[in-house]
Every structure is written in C-alpha cells, then in structure tokens.
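>> Question from a student workshop board

For tomorrow's exercise we were told to take the sequence and the ligand below, predict the bound structure, and bring the output to class. My setup keeps failing. Could a helper post the expected result so I can at least see what it should look like? The ligand is nicotinamide-adenine-dinucleotide.
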Amino acid sequence: MSVPSSATISPLSNVADAPVTVAVTGAAGQIGYALLFRLAAGALLGPERSIRLHLLEVPQARAALDGVIMELEDAAFPALQGIVATDDPMVAFRDAEQVFLVGARPRGPGMQRGDLLQANADIFRTQGRALDAVASRSVRVVVVGNPANTNALIAQRHAPSLDASCFSAMTRLDHNRALAQLAAKLRCGVADIRRLCVWGNHSSTQYPDVSYATVAGQPLAAQLEPAWLEQQFLPAVTERGAAIIQARGASSAASAASAAIDHMRDWVLGSTDWVSMALPADGAYDIPEGLVYSFPVQCSDGQASIVRELDISAASRERMDRSQDELLQELEAIRSLLP
Ligand code: NAD
Ligand code: LMR
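>> Workshop helper replied:
Here is what the output should look like for this input. Compare the format with yours to find the bug.
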C-alpha cells in the first residue's frame, strides 16, 4: 500500500506570500522527526515565510509518517501552509525549491559510513532523476544520507538538466562539532571563532582545519598546543559520529537536523562567516572536477562560493589528498551506476 500523495492538511495561516516548497526524504526517520518541526516553525526562512512540506517515505513507513503528520497538524504552526506525503519522488520533488535528502540507511556500531555505499546508492540515482524532471530549476539540494558526498555526486550526475551548483552534501555538522570543541577549549563562545573550515569527505578522513581560524580577531592556532590539536581535537571531531552511535545506540539526529538547517539557511539567506559545505569540485585547490568535496564557502545572493587562493601547507595538503583519495575510491565503487 502506498503513502497517500494528496495534501493532508489545509492552509492554517494568514501569511500572504506564496509558500516555499521544501521537500524532505526519510521524513519518518530520526533526523526527519527532529527536522520537520523546526522547518515548520520557521527555522529556515523565518516564521513570517510560509512553507509547504513535501514528505517522501517508503511505503513500509506509512503509519509512522501518518503519526508525524498528525503531530505537525497538532502543533498548529502558523507558517505551515500544507503537507504532501508520498512514496513517489516525482510527487515529492515537484516544484521543490529546497530539498533535504535524508532518507537512507544509517550505519551501526563498527561500520564506516562508506560501508553504506552499495545499500544507499540506488536511492540517490532514482531521486536525482526525479529532481531533474520536476524540481524548480533553481532548487537547492543538500544530501544528508550517508555516505553523503558520494550520494550527492550520484544524484547530481543523474540530474543533467540542473546546474551542478544546485547540489551539495552536508559537512556542516562536522564544522559545528569543530566549533564546539574549540570554543570549549578556549572558553569562548562559538560565535567568537571565525574562518574555520572542514575539507573533504564526511568520513573519518575529513580535515577540520584551523590554519586560518581566528578567535576574537586573533589567530586561533597560536593559542593552542599543536599536540592538543593533533591528538585531541582532530580525533574528537572526525570520530564524533561513531562516539554518538556508541553512546546512544543510534546515530546523531537532532544535531544533524540542526546542521542541515544551518546549511540550507546560510545557502539561501547568506552566511556571515566561512561555512563548510561539500560542493561539486570545479578545479579549486586541484580537487578533481565533479567530486563532491567539502570546502570553506561563503554564501550570498543564494550562491555558495568556494573561498579561493588560500595558502595550503604541505601538512594540510597531505590530509586533503587523503580525503580526496577516499572519495575517488568511492567513485570507483559506484561508477557503474553513473550515466
Ligand atoms: P533513520 O533510519 O531513522 O531514518 C531513515 C528514513 O529514511 C527511514 O524512515 C526510512 O524509511 C527512510 N527511507 C529509506 N529509503 C528511502 C527512500 N528511498 N525514500 C525515502 N525515504 C527512505 O535514519 P536517520 O538517523 O534519520 O539517518 C538518515 C541518514 O542520515 C543515514 O544515512 C545517516 O547515516 C545519515 N546521517 C548523516 C549525517 C551527516 O552529517 N551527513 C548526520 C547524521 C546522519
Ligand atoms: C554523523 O556524523 O553523526 C553521521 O554521519 C552518522 C554517522 O554514521 O556517524
């Protein structure tokens, strides 16, 4: 039996603007549950901007999704103008302007995110094709489902009529984790730290880089012991996902949803500092074109632009290359799925 594909609630609001269509896949999952209520409350575009949610799930999750929709109705969010629930990506992505591709299998204890590649790759091929066919031509897509970078590459390659710049994968959670670790160590606020970035893959090869970072306007790295950065900070950030799985028995959900909102909000409304986003590489920093690789990015006028021409030390280059090599291996593993 399929999930109903008609609107399930009527307009609740007197907000005048035409609603923005926001699509979320995996809507009945853990991250979906943390994400939808914040979206409906206006965390993305502000409580004055009305939105319409398009929710995609597999048929087996129908009952759970119905329950989530009942709760969304019961929260009586003024800006929520309607919900479409469906198991058909062609319905979910029709005219979608912002898309959160969350639906995918999560890893369990002892797994690497790359172990999910074969299980999840086909989802992103199908969804890339549907986005190509029916999404807004200026859609912004963030892939959260793991392995996020290569899943984004698969979706992007199956959407040839959309500009590659419509696609991204989420490394904002890693960026936020790095900010939190540094702020705790330096006893400052996260907002005091600027020009931090995460390079590469959303995996244990990612490189959270403090080379350009400042705290209260002063160089940050100079205030920390190199040994702390190497032996405490880097592993704390790169292994944080595994630590949460170990502690919770399930992967991060609320922090992932929060990072996904940060990612999309800054993309659409503009960022006030560097943020980390995995984008299709365009030759910057000699990363092979097309790989979806995390860079330092600034957003304005709805565009995400890689921060260019930074001096890269030999030590940084080695770490960046390691993550690039992992992404090239992931690409080889799914090459047969590409058009
Ligand atoms: P979950 O298992 O709780 O939920 C996933 C949902 O996706 C399920 O409800 C499932 O029915 C649905 N789904 C599966 N295939 C689908 C399809 N083809 N179309 C639509 N929906 C589909 O998992 P979760 O905890 O919400 O995590 C989702 C994904 O996000 C996992 O791959 C996880 O590893 C990843 N994740 C990424 C980050 C990141 O920083 N990039 C952070 C946390 C989790
Ligand atoms: C995370 O970083 O928390 C997610 O990618 C989930 C995981 O598998 O680590």
